[in-house]
Write a structure and sequence with these properties.
This protein is α+β, with helices and mostly antiparallel strands and about 300 residues long. Helices cover about 35% and strands about 25% of the residues.
């Protein structure tokens, strides 16, 4: 009682013979006592929780002083927060006490990992990976670490994000290993080639594509797909066949012109000799005529053979 409780007290003097015993009402102010406490233990939370998520309902009389307070970062030993014990008996004082709360990592299932694409180099690459959790961008080496696969070829590279610190869990992701510009230029020009090589212009375009191929590194050549390699080989073969036939035709025409020239010379000589005939003039003319007939037969046979090859 703050005003005091009244109790009768008796004063007995030492000299009772000469003095009276006296009774008097005294006021006694009763102060509240501190209660005997059972301290809550084993309190746990997950990163991102507030104290309202840490239940004290199993501990009668205990509440958090500020239940909106964050539990803070992950801690195996526990982060301490003030709790209040309010005894049911009004004769005891409320008690404030710091209680440890063990904070466990938050397992992430909805984090998003995005990586940059890279261009083929033939070497293992480790592109930057950005990890977000809603509007929050997590910090590399603080909230997570990234390990990369061994892929080096054009296509997909792989990586694994392993969370740490306040987070737990993993995310598997991939990134693009793109073809080099030299490879793209080669395939682009290869796809422009006609299906059949019919002219010198077509054959020259194949030579241009061949030059682009020769400029590729050995590693880049190995990255070309089987379909691309087959298409390239077929183009080379078609261009070679066309060039072989074209060169053969040119040689044949040149031979024909030379023989015709010789024929003209013989004819001229024959005419000159006719002005001064000799006893052998008739035989010479007959031999010349036979030679020309045989030469004409050879030329016709050659032309016919080349036409068959073209067809």
């Amino acid at each position: 009682s703050e005003t005091g409780n009244k109790f009768v007290a008796v004063f007995t003097p030492a000299d009772t013979d000469n003095y009276n015993t006296i009774e008097k009402a005294l006021t006694v102010v009763v102060i509240k006592a501190d209660p005997s406490l059972t301290i809550p233990t084993g309190l746990e939370a997950t990163y991102g929780d507030t104290l309202s998520d840490v239940k004290l309902s199993d501990w009668t009389g205990w509440t958090w002083k500020d239940s909106t307070q964050s539990v803070g970062n992950v801690s195996e030993t526990g982060n301490k927060f003030v709790a209040v014990f309010t005894p049911e008996n009004e004769n005891y004082n409320p008690i404030e006490k710091e209680l440890p709360v063990i904070v466990k990592p938050l397992e992430l299932t909805d984090a998003l990992a995005i990586s940059e694409d890279v261009t083929y180099t033939g070497e293992k690459q480790e592109p930057k990976v950005t990890v977000t959790l809603g509007d929050i961008t997590l910090i590399d080496e603080v909230d997570y670490v990234v390990t990369y696969g061994d892929e080096t070829d054009v296509g997909n590279g792989t990586y694994t994000v392993t969370f740490k610190g306040n987070y737990s869990g993993t995310i598997d992701g991939s990134y693009n290993i793109e073809a080099t510009k030299a490879m793209e230029d080669f395939e682009e020009e290869l796809n422009k080639l006609p299906n059949e090589i019919k002219t010198k212009e077509d054959a020259e375009k194949v030579d241009e594509v061949k030059e682009l191929y020769n400029n590729l590194t050995d590693g880049e050549k190995l990255q070309l797909s089987d379909d691309v390699v087959i298409k390239y080989d077929n183009a080379l073969a078609a261009a070679k066949e066309f060039n072989d036939i074209d060169n053969s035709d040119s040689n044949g025409d040149s031979s024909g012109d030379s023989n015709n020239s010789n024929g003209d010379s013989d004819s001229s000589n024959s005419k000159d000799n006719s002005k001064n005939p000799s006893p052998n003039t008739g035989a010479t003319l007959r031999l010349t005529a036979c030679a020309m007939i045989m030469l004409a037969g050879v030329i016709l046979a050659t032309i016919s053979s080349k036409r068959k090859k073209k067809n």
